Amino acid sequence: MPELPEVETIKRQLQKRLRGETILDVKVFFEKIIFSVSDSTFIKDLKKQRVQEISRRGKYLIFKLTDYYMLVHLRMSGKFLIKEKDSINQKHEHIHFIFNNFILAYHDVRKFGRIYLVKDPSIILDKLGIEPLSEKFTLLEFKKILKGTKSIKAFLLDQSEIAGLGNIYVDEALFLAKIAPKRLISAIYDDEAALLHHAIIKVLKKGIDNMGTSLGKGKSNYKNIESLGKNQNELLVFNRENEPCINCKNPIKKIRVAQRGTHYCPFCQK
DNA sequence: AGTGGCCCCTGGCGGC
DNA sequence: TGCCGCCAGGGGCCAC
Hints:
Elements: H1 4-18, E1 25-28, E2 34-35, H2 39-46, E3 51-57, E4 60-65, E5 69-73, E6 78-84, E7 93-98, E8 102-108, E9 114-118, H3 122-125, H4 139-145, H5 152-157, H6 167-176, H7 190-209, E10 253-257, E11 260-264
Parallel strand pairs: 2-9
Antiparallel strand pairs: 1-7, 3-4, 4-5, 5-9, 6-8, 7-8, 10-11
Helix pairs in contact: 1-7, 6-7
The structure holds a DNA duplex.
């Protein structure tokens, strides 16, 4: 579920609530969420750790602690909840981080999320490509990495190329750039690359301004710490199959590209 | 190198 | 109402 704008929103909220707070205890209810250490080590090492800083790289949340880094990837349905002290764990809450005045609960319906506890985060984060909202993501740099023989959609979803884009924002960016998702990278012109570069930054910034995209109605729906996002109300193609294209009024089509449901306008995107 | 298939899970929805 | 198959915002692995 969560892509860069959703993770960024959660990061900002966690930063406000957790910075400077100390983990007093940890309770693990489903240990398969924890990677890189055993659950007993995880609990032992986290006790007395103070949260110094929370940041983001791609779709990873990075908790900088006194002696460790805790990296969290929410995958499809992971989320964090702030609960009252001494409240019991509800269904789908797999880990409780107990602080002085509240509990931070990791909730994940589909259980795909991963939490790593490491001394050196580079082992995991070095695999990620460029950060699309950083100053390094220039048009020149984008053109430099835009190579290979795959489809443009598969390229944009590849976290080792650009870190943080997911299915929603890729479809939205390709629509803005008027490029069909199946188009091969080798067939993209310079002026289109410039449009796409601009579109990627635009859709991500809008997503953050709207505090993320909340689709669907179920318990696995994206929710930041405080509320649902608002970006679902402003999507141009994603989740709009058969609805009219905002440019040409022809129906938006849904096809399969790179094993993902893909929304686009066959008339506007060539 | 790139793609497609399958897997990790649970739940919601549409069709019958 | 119930059952069944399909779908889902992510990503790792494996065979071709």
